[in-house]
Amino acid sequence: MRSICEQRWITIAVLTAAFLIPFSLSESPPLLSSSPSPFTSIFSFGDSFADTGNWYLASPSPQHCFFPPYGQTFFHHVSGRCSDGRLIIDFIAESLGLPLVKPYLGKKNGKEGANFAVVGATALDPSFFEERGVSIPTNYSLTQQLNWFKELLPSLCNSFTDCREVFGNSLFLMGEIGGNDFNYFFFEQNSIAEVKTYVPYVINAIASAIHELVGVGARTLIIPGNLPIGCSVIYLTIYETKDENEYDQSGCLKWLNEFAEYYNHELQSELHKLQALYSHANIIFADYYNAALPLYRDPTKFGFSGLKACCGMGGPYNFNASVKCGDPRVIPCDDPSKYIGWDGIHLTEAANKLIAQAVIKWSYSSSSI
Q: Residue span of the signal peptide, if any (predicted)?
C-alpha cells in the first residue's frame, strides 16, 4: 500500500518568500522579504493541522482527507493535507524561503528537515486514553513521532557537536499538538471539569519532547497553542443549544473558547519555565488562538462569509459527521477563500494563510527569532 501511495506523492514546488518569522509581541514590524533565512531546515511534530502526508502514506485504509476535493485550491490534487490547500506550516516554510516540509514517511533522509505530524495524533500515548475508556483512531503519539526523529539522527549527524551545529540551524515546530487529546474526550461529551484535569498531562508530554529536542541541539522551537475550538463547526454541531447565553457575539461557544484560553495560559507558563532552564534556546509560544479569533469576530473584514463549513452537507453549519467532505455526495462551496472552515474540523487555505501571517508578521508569538 505504501509503495502505491509513494508513487502518488508529488514533490511540491516552493513559492517565493513573502514574510518573516515573528517579532516580539510589543512590536508591529514592517513586512520584510529581503533578509536571508536564518534556518536551513524545519522539523515538525503535530496532528492534522500540520500533517503534510504521513497518514496518507501510512494508513492501511483511506481517510476522508485523501479524496477530492481536498487539495483542490493550491495543489490541484489530493496532497495528504486535511485542507483545500496549504497549511500553516507550509506558509511558515515559504516565509523562510525553504521547501515545503516533506512527510517523514515519504522521504526519510531528513537533510532538508522532516515532518512527523500525523492526522489524529495526540501528545499523550494511547494507553492514557485506554485507561480512561476512550478509543482513539491512531497510535502516532508524540512519543512515536520523537522515535521517528531519533531514527533520522544517524543520517543527520554523528556526534553531539555535529548535531548541535545541524539543529542549531533548524527550526522546530511543535504542533499544533495536544488538541486531539482534548477532542477525543469532548467528542464523548465528557465534562469540562474532567477534561481540565488532563491539561497537566498534555503539557508535561510537550515539555518532555522539548527537553529531548533541546538535548540534541535544538535552539529555536515554536510551540503553538490551541485554536478557538468554540468556533469549530464540529463542536458547534455536537454542543448545539437554544440557550443564546452559551454563545458569544460571533456565534462561538464561550465555554469551549474559555477552555482553550485556560490551556494556552497553562502551556505558556510551562514554556516560561523551560525558557529559564534553557537560556541558550529560543522557546516561542505561537498564539494561534488570538491569531485566528479576529477571523471569527469580523469575518467580512477578511472576506469570509461566517461560521459555516465550505465542504459539507446539512445542518445549520453545513456539517454532518456521518457524511463528511470527501464523500462523493458532498459538493464543496464554489469559493473556499470565502470560508474560514473547510470541512467542519480543519481550516481552509485562506484561513491558514491569515493565521500564519498574523503569527509571523503581526507578532502573535512570545518571542522573536
A: 1-26
253 phi, psi to nearest 5 deg: -75, 115
Rounded to whole angstroms, how far apart are CA atoms 86 and 84? 7
- SS3 state of residue 325: strand
User: Each residue of 108-137: pLDDT tens digit?
Assistant: 677 889 999 999 999 999 999 999 999 998
Grid cell of 132 as nine digits = 480512561
SS (H, E, C) 192-259: HHHHHCCHHHHHHHHHHHHHHHHHCCCCEEEEECCCCHHHCHHHHHHCCCCCHHHECCCCCEHHHHHH
| Domain range list for the chain | 41-367
Express each pLDDT in 341-368 by its tens digit.
Answer: 999 999 999 999 999 998 887 555 555 5
Query: What pLDDT, on a 0 to 100 scale, did the predictor assign at position 38?
Result: 85
Query: Any catalytic annotation for residue 287?
Result: no
Burial of 77 (0-12, 13-18, 19+ CB in 10 A): exposed
DSSP 47-63: STTT-SSHHHHH-SS--
- For 11, which DSSP code? P
Q: Which of 343, 363, 366, 367 is catalytic?
A: 343
Residue of 346, 365, 366, 367 marked active site: 346
Tell me which of 3.40.50.1110, 3.40.50.150, 3.40.50.850, 3.40.50.2020 is the CATH number of domain 41-367: 3.40.50.1110
Task: Quote the CA–CA distance of 138 and 126 in Å, as a whole number.
Answer: 8
pLDDT tens-digit map of 238-287? 999 999 999 999 999 999 999 999 999 999 999 999 999 999 999 999 99
| pLDDT value at 299 more than 90 | yes
Any catalytic annotation for residue 343? yes
| Residue 248 a catalytic site member | no
Q: Which residue in the list 41, 44, 47, 48 is annotated as catalytic?
A: 48
Is pLDDT of 293 > 50?
yes
d(CA 214, CA 89): 21
How many C-beta atoms lie closer than 10 Å to residue 187's C-beta?
14
Residue 56 confidence (pLDDT): 87
